[in-house]
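step=encode ok
step=design start
structure_in=
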């Protein structure tokens, strides 16, 4: 099969298209023919080596964290899926590799593709959908009537999280440039701060939850918009000791994470608010609940641009540029 391989870490390291063997299946795995794959900023960060502390992939390896496609073959212990099923997934860490024509995915990380959207639209969902679900539903336990501030509303996570928060009955604020206002209003944003003209921390206050996806400076400002006992959940770091315990990190890594998050945790404590770090986990059961929301019309995919498989490096560069509104997708099959 054809696949895009990362031979060495580095910002200027282009992925190389190569012929590699089709993956062998374990008993609990499903072989999926990749019809489309989503491109995420995480892909660029992994390529650049920024996540080697958490995800020490040994080069060469296939990049890619989102897949929509068709089941070709199943392992002998697989019960939920069969050949011919249309599915989608965010494969488990250390089992990524969706920039390829085929991928083996654990049954537990797979879900049936929503029937009312295309393969390309489905490929845009898993990583951002699960990130928003685990932040707002699992971690924050967002309730009807609460206020949530979702940064970078026009991004992949933002466009999904806004819709999910509105479905859960929250009032939603976000940041964007003026060109994205109409789209974000349509998705359900109640208040939009033009980050080019205003400082959001001077406009927003008294929020129950913040979903932080930006840099450390933005995180510090975001703590100030929370009301006492509010919660900031960050998907961009720094990782905290609780997260280190969750992943059963070695002692040295735990100490590094404790140091990296010390200043943020101290600021949060002083403001009487909570801070936690989220690194999304694969989950077929949660993705199936997202399928139900999409099929009901509560959430719709937002796709900015679809690239050809041959233009995978161009797709990655476009995502890294920060210009995309919604998700960028690669059509593989």
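sequence_out=
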């Amino acid at each position: 099969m054809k696949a895009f391989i990362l031979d060495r870490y580095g910002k200027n390291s282009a992925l190389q298209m190569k012929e590699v063997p089709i993956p062998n299946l374990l008993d609990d795995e499903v072989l999926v023919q990749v019809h489309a794959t989503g491109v995420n900023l995480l892909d660029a960060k992994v390529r650049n080596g920024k996540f080697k502390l958490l995800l020490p992939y040994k080069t060469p390896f296939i990049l890619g964290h989102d897949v929509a496609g068709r089941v070709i073959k199943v392992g002998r212990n697989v019960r939920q899926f069969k050949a011919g099923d249309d599915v989608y997934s965010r494969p488990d860490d250390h089992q990524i590799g969706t920039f390829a024509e085929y991928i083996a995915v654990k049954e537990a990380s797979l879900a049936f593709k929503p029937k009312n959207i295309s393969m390309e639209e489905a490929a845009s969902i898993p990583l951002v959908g699960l990130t928003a679900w685990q932040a707002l539903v699992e971690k924050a336990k967002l309730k009807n009537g609460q206020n949530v501030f979702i940064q970078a509303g026009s991004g992949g996570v933002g466009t999904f999280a806004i819709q999910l928060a509105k479905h859960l009955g929250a009032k939603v604020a976000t940041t964007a440039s003026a060109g994205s206002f109409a789209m974000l209003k349509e998705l359900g944003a109640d208040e939009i701060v033009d980050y080019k003209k205003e400082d959001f921390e001077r406009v927003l206050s008294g929020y129950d939850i913040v979903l932080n996806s930006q840099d450390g400076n933005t995180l510090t400002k975001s703590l100030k918009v929370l009301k006492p006992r509010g919660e900031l959940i960050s998907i961009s770091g720094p990782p905290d000791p609780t997260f280190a315990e969750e992943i059963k990190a070695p002692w040295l890594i735990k100490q590094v994470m404790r140091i990296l998050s010390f200043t943020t945790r101290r600021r949060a404590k002083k403001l009487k608010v909570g801070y936690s770090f989220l690194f999304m986990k694969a989950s077929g059961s949660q993705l199936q609940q997202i399928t139900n929301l999409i099929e009901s019309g509560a959430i719709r995919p937002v796709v900015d641009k679809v690239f050809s498989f041959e233009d995978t490096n161009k797709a990655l560069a476009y995502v890294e540029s920060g210009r995309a509104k919604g998700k960028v997708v690669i059509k593989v099959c």
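step=design ok
step=annotate ok -> The first strand starts at residue 2 and ends at 6.
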